[in-house]
Amino acid sequence: MRNLKSRIAAVSTVALLAAQALLPPVPSKEAAARPLTASEFGRLIQRISEEGGHFWNDNYVSNEESYLHPLGKIQELGIRGGVYIGVGPSQNFTYIAKIRPSYAFILDIRRQNLLQHLMFKALFHFSRDRRDYLSLLLSRPRGPDLPDGREPTVGELERHFRGREPDARLFRRTQARIRNFLTEACRVELTDRDFLTIHKIHRAFFLRGLAIKYDYIPVPSYGEFLLETDLRGQRQNFLNSAAEFRFLQHMHWENRIIPVTGDFAGNRALREIGECLRERGEKLTVFYTSNVEQYLVRSLTWQAFLDNLRELPRDDNAVFIRAFWSNQITHPEVVKGYRFTQTLQWLQPFLADSGPGKYETYWDIVTAHTIPLR
């Protein structure tokens, strides 16, 4: 067993050095972020996480087709570095790739989401490139390299994998590799039930491929999600960029993307993240809340979330990225043809203005201190 762990550590070190050679230069603030060892990574997850809470359905893929709309304004405002906090599945990767934080915490009330991100971590570890990543995620053959040797676009990747049938042997082999990696190299305490959940998540991608989607409301499939564009009409998903994929891979190798289980309004997770930021001299830059606050308002726990938020060290220019589902009322920032509206809002003025009697409805929350995206 000791020899196996030594071999895993040696392979990881070689892979990390190779990745560092491939990565584009990054600002000094990003380069200064201290990697976490596998043991530190596992202990940090244990320290921060709360007991898993209940959510009424599975959600394996992001469902906000407007997720790219804030990116142009984020770039224009120079919001970059610091610490990112987000929620949910793979949508976070595109935000992380653009913002380039020192550390990223993915906080979700569902333990399923933590396990899915550990699965993603394993796939990033195994993959040579974006084509490998999608091949392993979807259990479909990666296919030959492009004849001219160039990197494929996300459109070319989508076309390739849309036309491929699932490979059961590849699925079983990848599952075995995921279990071995998470058992031997990650140092995260996982149960047999956790591994059954990871198997269930991976099998959903195996069965549905790029057609997998959030089935409860009319939203795009995963394949359509990859092809979404920003407000300038540019495809900006992280899988459209080899450099962004390598940056995320680098963060995973250094254990700087930390998935945790917790309630935004709970009494532990966010406060422990705040303590972790203070220990490392870091500040929150971006908090992607999706529409979680809608549920906190319904359960009368939203003020507890604000109390937790006040405990986080925050950059003066920190922002929220929020999502509003326009099924009954249209948001002022709505983009024609989109059911979701993504909002960008200043965090510090929002908190300063959040006294008693303020922000009593979710509509109040998503329309206060908004930054026009166009």
Average pLDDT: 89
Mass-distribution shape: globular
| Radius of gyration based on Cα positions | 20 Å
Number of helices: 17
Proportion of residues in helical segments: 40-55%
Strand content: 5-15%
Strand order of the largest sheet: 3-2-1-4-5-6
What does this structure look like?
This protein is α/β, with parallel strands linked by helices and 374 residues long. It contains 17 helices and six strands. The protein has helices at 2-22, 28-31, 38-48, 71-77, 91-99, 111-126, 130-138, 154-162, 168-184, 192-208, 222-226, 242-253, 269-280, 292-298, 302-310, 347-352, 362-366, and strands at 83-86, 103-108, 257-261, 284-290, 314-325, 340-346. Strands 3-2-1-4-5-6 form a six-stranded mixed beta sheet, with helices on both faces. Helix 5 (91-99) links the parallel strand 1 (83-86) and strand 2. Helix 6 (111-126) packs across helix 9 and helix 9 (168-184) packs antiparallel against helix 10. Residues 1-31 have low confidence and may be disordered.
